[in-house]
Amino acid sequence: SSSLTEVKEFVKRLRRQTDLCNMAKTVRALLNNNSTVTVLRSGLHAVFNEQSLDVTKNLFRDKFRNPKKRQKNIQFKCLKNLISSLTSSTDIRDLLSCFSSDLQTFVIKPSRNKEAFKKQASDFMLKWNLLLSTVGKILTINRTDSFG
């Protein structure tokens, strides 16, 4: 029983690693194409300039009605930082470094202890996934050229 559990966990880790490798290959190919990066950046900038993200922004704000506990849209800051560093000459390692730096600043350093870190990290991931899925939907529906 315990061996089966260990094997299942190993398979999950292997799948994640494979998914990350495939994603890295795709991003590298995308970053090498100047016109694709230009179209993607313009689409992403348009998404932020439109009212499309207002629903998502309101969801983020509504969770923290207490001003002391309200987060300052960390996920939007991280995404905007990634977009600002996105150019056709950008290496994927530079993007990951940018994101890692933001995570260090906004999630890891502010955590006072292990439990606070777990809570903050899970909250960040939940909202990050929500933001990226919303941006993906908007790009797919309104900016199909940004998706190649």
From TrEMBL:
Residues 4-148 form the RFX1-4/6/8-like BCD domain. GO terms for molecular function: DNA-binding transcription factor activity, RNA polymerase II-specific; RNA polymerase II cis-regulatory region sequence-specific DNA binding. PANTHER family: DNA-BINDING PROTEIN RFX8 (PTHR12619:SF24), RFX TRANSCRIPTION FACTOR FAMILY (PTHR12619). This is RFX8 protein. It comes from Neopipo cinnamomea.
